[in-house]
Amino acid sequence: MPKPFPKEFRDDVVAIALRRESSFAQIAKDLEISESCVQRWVKIAEVDGGRRPGVSSSEAAENRELRKRVKLLEQEVEILRRAAAYLSQANLSGPKGSTRS
Questions:
Q1: pLDDT of amino acid 1
Q2: Exposed, middle or buried by CB within 10 Å (0-12, 13-18, 19+), for 20?
Q3: Which residue range(s) make up the domain with 25?
Q4: In this predicted structure, what is the pLDDT of residue 96?
Q5: Is the pTM above the cut of 0.70?
Q6: Which residues contact 34 (CB under 8 A, 6 or more apart)?
Q7: Residue 33 domain flag
Q8: Do residues 79 and 48 lie in contact, with contact meaning Cβ atoms separated by under 8 Å?
Q9: Alpha-carbon distances, residue 90 vs 61, 77, 79, 85 (angstroms)
Q10: Do 13 and 41 meet the contact criterion of CB atoms below 8 Å apart?
């Protein structure tokens, strides 16, 4: 995976692109980056700025964190479920060393 560009650089590229003085292809060529990078960064900026529908960067980050939290909680529930089943089985078999008549 290529090294990410600094945020300041991306912001500058977006500002240049949004002025619409040059095409995305020309901007990309001048700055030695891919045209798809310029297009993606502009799209993200427009979504974050509310000029285009979609999920903003902050919402996407929040969604990622929430998915991680849900996964962790689901793992914890599974552990507790298994522990409860194990303890339930232990109680059904009675205390060790005792014999039933």
A1: 66
A2: exposed
A3: 7-71
A4: 63
A5: no
A6: 28
A7: yes
A8: no
A9: 44, 20, 16, 9
A10: yes
Residue 100 lies in a domain: no
Phi-psi region for residue 61, left (φ > 0), alpha (ψ -120 to 50) or beta? alpha
d(CA 98, CA 90): 13
Q: Is residue 96 part of a domain?
A: no
Does the residue 82 lie in any domain? no
Into how many domains does the chain fold?
1
| Average pLDDT of every residue of the chain | 90
- H or E stretch covering 81: helix 57-93
Write the pLDDT tens digit of every residue in 45-87. Answer: 999 998 999 999 999 999 999 999 999 999 999 999 999 999 9
